Amino acid sequence: MRENFEWKVKRSNKTTLHLVCIIDNCTWKLRAVRRDEGTYFQVRSFVNQHSCPLEEVHRRHRQASAVIIGEVIAPRLQQHDGRLMRPKDIIADMKTMYGIQVMYSKAHDALQYALSLTYGTHEESFKLLPSFAYVLEQQNPGTITDLQCADDDTFLYFFMSLGSSIRGFRRCMRPVIAVDGTHLKGRFGGTMFVATAQDGNEQVYPIAFGYGDSENNLSWEWFLECLRGALGHIDDLVFISDRHVNIEAGISKVFPYATHTICCWHFGENMKKRFHRKDVADIMDSEARTYSEFNYNRHMEELHRLHKGAFEYAIAAGPHKWSRVHCPQRRYRLMTTNVAECINSCLKFARQLPMMTLAEFIRNMLQKWFHDRHAAARSMRHQLTDAAHLVILKRVEKCNYMTVNPIDWNIFSVKLKGNQWTVNLHLKTCTCNIFQMDHFPCSHALAAARERNLDYTSLCADYYKRETLIDAYSFPIMPVGHPSSWVVPSDIASRVVLNPKSKRQSGRPMEGRHASSSERTTTQSCRRCGQSRHNSRRCSNPPMVNEGPSISVPDEYRRKCSICHSIGHNKQTCPEKDSTVE
């Protein structure tokens, strides 16, 4: 392929293989004969010189089959930026490396073959899924898996929650779980369900993963039931999600004792899309995040004044679902489903892999996270986590401007710029509500603690401490090894799991999600000529005609030609340009 020559088979049987150049009368040839004592062929004649004329050389190499190209690109299938190689990338690489022009259809087939070489096929993945689940539970004690199939043995659902994650959440995490679903981009499509929390260092802490056909009521109810079986009963449990009706119905049925809240970012985007008012969404976000009832009422009055329909929409959604002040349980500092969205972003590449390969990709990712974060937690120099320590430092800076008046040994009055708050260090409360809602000291509590020379770490909940973070990642996640080394009972190894009946839509799957109205970027346009892709400083077009009232600009501020120093044109359109060159 590098020399841009092709060959064809002149003779091929059980004893002889004879290859010649595709161009007639060329001297290149290879002849091999089978040895008597085995299945090997011995090369008897090989002329490695071509006598083909250059005009006869073909650029579309017949030996560059999809299988050969797939074997070439398999080691570098995933590029440096984490993106999967595309057919057009394969076409460009084959042209650069071998000088071969590859058709798009052949590049697509080569990509699929390289994927099957590297990550296995979907059929093999579903076949090995029961054995994978068994070995995963044996290697990682406490792991919970669940594989559901239909009556005809076709795949329906798969649930996976590692024992290290279950233990870490129950012992060391705040009882707030963000749930979300995202599309799988493989051959059979489907949906991946994610349940995540956030550790004391503001890092994503995955709890469970599920795979189903779509985001319907049955699939969400199944996933939440598996999650309840893995976690058990959690006091003061709070769920955060978008406004998907099936999520809300599933939580109310499976976790009747838990509190379901909605993501304030999604809620604000819904209001922006419905009422086409960015200022309304901004006010909505402020009143959702505030800790004070007074500020909440002030924002609601402002919302009612700006848009009555948006006010009624917020009331109908239920302030107890989107407002921090009216939430029955503590949401701490988690007001969005960003921790779940981060997991979806980390698995952007893996979501197109076969099912068992995707599960192994997640296990390997969590194995690395647990190791790296455990080492990072042990190297922290403060009693609090690094993220919590930075928040304390920012709040301590405000304490220098506060006036603290003791009321008794534990109660203090803190004043700043005409405002006054009451802090109780024994009950760990403050009239700003931050102290008791987050279990983390506010700036007023830090000012009061300074008055009594108290260590500020004693005011923080255990969730934010270094030792708790070390404990959360102390149990490592073990690998499962290669399938050839698995020791699985015969009843599990012989279980039949067939491909699901559903398939994704034809065509190339979308790599990214649809951007909301607030995320769409605007195209830059020139204010001189009105066209895009350049600005007025680099504009060489004539100025656009404004039919409205014009504004007179003094000549000393107008742009002049650098050749003739006249006004109204530049050096590119100067009439004296040719004479100057001559």
From TrEMBL:
Swiss-Prot/TrEMBL keywords: Metal-binding, Zinc, Zinc-finger
Alphabetized Pfam families for the sequence: MULE, SWIM
Molecular function, one GO term: nucleic acid binding
Superkingdom in the source lineage: Eukaryota
Residue intervals of the SWIM-type domain: 421-453
Gene3D superfamilies xref list: Zinc finger, CCHC-type
The protein, known as: SWIM-type domain-containing protein
InterPro entries: MULE_transposase_dom, Znf_CCHC, Znf_PMZ, Znf_SWIM
Region (Disordered): 499-553
